[in-house]
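Before relying on records like the one below, remember that each one covers exactly one chain. Contacts with other chains, cofactors or solvent are not represented anywhere in the record.
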Amino acid sequence: MEELIRTTDPTVLTFATALLRSEGIECFELDVHMSVLEGSLGVLPRRLMARRADAFRARAVLRDNGLEVSAAGVGV
């Protein structure tokens, strides 16, 4: 899996997920339930992940729509 976006803004993640799924690229969020630890303040970033095989295309889709993406090669 590769990280595409890391942000504290849930609207960015929702927009990015909709863009990727409309292109047929499977993605998912990590760190969604970290609000339990932080007290629902929204200070801990969430990560949007995609399969390594889809990462290049996913980054292109996000960049084309004005979203900043994580550097290539960030693997988990």
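DSSP finds three helices and three strands in the chain.
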